[in-house]
Every structure is written in C-alpha cells, then in structure tokens.
Design a protein that fits this description.
Layout (H helix, E strand, L loop, with lengths): L1 H6 L5 H10 L5 H15 L2 E7 L5 H11 L2 E3 L9 H8 L3 E7 L2 H8 L11 E5 L5 E6 L6 H12 L2 E3 L3 H4 L3 E7 L5 H12 L7 E7 L6 H10 L3 E4 L1 H6 L8 H6 L6 H8 L3 E10 L2 E8 L6
Parallel strand pairs: 1-2, 1-3, 3-4, 5-6, 7-8, 8-9
Antiparallel strand pairs: 4-5, 7-11, 10-11
Length: 294
C-alpha cells in the first residue's frame, strides 16, 4: 500500500527531501512532494487532494497553498488504474478534496464506504471551482466544514445537503471594523436576532476583506458556524442595500456589506432584519423562503 501511495507523489521525492533538509531553495512542486513523503511516514495525514486530470494541477496547488494537504496525481502510476490507486490511499487521510465530476467521485467511492462514523470526509470540487460539494461524512467526518474551507480558498459556492442544515433557515451577513472582538460581534448578532435563536443560523457571510478577521473567525468557531466569504466583485454585482454606508463606501468601495452578503448566501431568502449596527459591527438577517414559493 505505502509503495503505491508513494508512487503517486513522483519518483524524485527522496532526492528533493535532501535539499529541503539542507535548507536550499525549492519550488512549489518540491513542497508538494515533501508533503507526500511526510504523509507516508506518518501513515495518516489530515487532507488528501485527488486529481483526475493534469488540467487540475493549478487549482490543486492553489488549494494546497491555502489549506494544506497532499496532492495525488494518479497518472504518474501507469501500472494501476486510478480507482485502484484511490482505494489504496483512501483510508490514509481523514479528509479528501476530489477535483472531479461528482459521478467520478461516486464511482471511486463504490466499495470503499463503511459508515458515517469512520468514513473519511469527501468534498467534490469541479475543475472550474464553481461548487464545493460536501459529498460524504458531512457532520461526523467534517465534510461540511471542509466544503466551506475549500469555498473560501477557491471562490466556489459551498453545497451542503445534510438535513440539520436544511432545518436552519437563517443566514447572517456581517461586516465589522478591524479588531472587533468575538464578544462584541456576538452581542451585535444577538441584538439583531432579538428573540430568534442563534441555533437557527445556518451560516455567516461576509466580504473577502474580512476573511481573516480574528474576532469574526473566533465567533464562528465558538458557535460552530461556517463562514462564507464573498469576493468584492460578487458583492458589487448585487450591491442592493436598504441604507448606504458612507464609511463602507470610503473604505471598501461598496454601498454596504452585511445585507448583500446575506442575500447572496441565501438566493431564495427574504431580508427579515435590515442592517443593524452595534459597537462597530453591522448585521443583517435573511430567512430562507419555502421551496414551494420559488
């Protein structure tokens, strides 16, 4: 098994690892190869990134740079089929991103699935990075969370179909000043929600400028809420707001953040709480409309 997995990384891994240990300059491909070597030595690594075609190389390297992982290139091994290679590597990781069509992913997983408590999480990302689909082990394995991580890294739309999320009708759009704490954000969220429960919130949406805002990340982590990050271009294309913010116009170049972000994240939703502000935090709440009204 380990020989087959090692083969997927390329023949020069061992030689390149010597240069890495010496501290000599290396290219991104060397880093990827070293990741593969470390994964084999530790038997289990947290994330595997499976490519079907060489055309996906650039996207895979981009994901690797943002969320880590080991990149698998099955075309390097001509003695085994890609499905055989995937079967050999499948249990070596707790999480997978498969850059492939969902049909290919399903065929590769055929015969490998055991149960939701032990199966590795699988997210399928199409080659154009349009959709990051939580396919397997959404809750227990963490595929839902991984789908949002992949989406943030690639600009894809996260697709989560587990029943628990389907029963959560609310989406929060949040914008905030730099350096605002998680406690301040939480107070602003409860202020906006009023009597509504935070447990009914499915996700939080914000603009890319706030993707690494510590307080926002801490708030989401504290409550297990996925953070969906939208590009400036995406928000600008649907920049409808109930009230224009001069501060946001001057500093972000948009009329507003929280309302358009919430509405984009819930295309079928209705704005039930327009922008509310508290201590440097702006929050809007959107509620999903029933599918029969679509």
């Amino acid at each position: 098994m380990s020989g087959l997995v090692s083969a997927l990384m390329g023949e020069e891994t061992a030689d390149k690892s010597k240069d890495i240990l010496k501290g000599e300059p290396r290219d991104p491909a060397t880093d990827i190869a070293m990741q593969g070597l470390m994964a084999e030595q530790s038997v289990v690594a947290s994330l595997g990134i499976w490519l079907v075609r060489e055309d996906s190389e650039r996207l895979a390297v981009h994901l690797h740079a943002h969320i880590g992982g080991v990149i698998y290139r099955p075309w390097l091994d001509t003695s085994h089929s890609p499905k055989e290679q995937f079967a050999a590597a499948y249990r070596q990781h707790s999480h997978w991103v498969m850059i492939a069509a969902s049909g290919i992913a399903v065929r590769f997983l055929d015969g490998e699935i055991a149960d939701k408590y032990s199966d590795p999480a699988v997210v399928v990302l199409d080659e154009a990075a349009r959709f990051a689909v939580s396919l397997l082990a959404g809750h227990e394995g963490g595929a839902n969370r991984l789908a949002y991580q992949v989406a943030r890294a690639s600009g894809a739309v996260p697709v989560v179909t587990t029943a628990t999320e389907a029963l959560k009708p609310l989406v929060l759009g949040i914008g905030c000043r730099k350096g605002v704490s998680a406690d301040v954000i939480e107070a602003a969220v409860h202020f906006a929600l009023e009597a509504r429960a935070l447990s009914q919130v499915r996700e939080v949406a914000t603009i890319a400028l706030k993707a690494d805002e510590p307080g926002l990340l801490d708030f989401c982590e504290r409550h297990g809420l996925p953070l969906r990050v939208l590009s400036h271009t995406t928000v600008a294309a649907r920049a409808w707001v109930t009230q224009v913010s001069e501060w946001v116009q001057q500093n972000v170049g948009l009329d507003g953040v929280c309302e358009p972000c919430a509405l984009i994240a819930s295309p079928r939703g209705t704005l039930i709480v327009p922008k509310t502000t508290k201590d440097g935090v702006a929050v809007a709440v959107v509620e999903d409309s029933d599918w029969t009204q679509a």
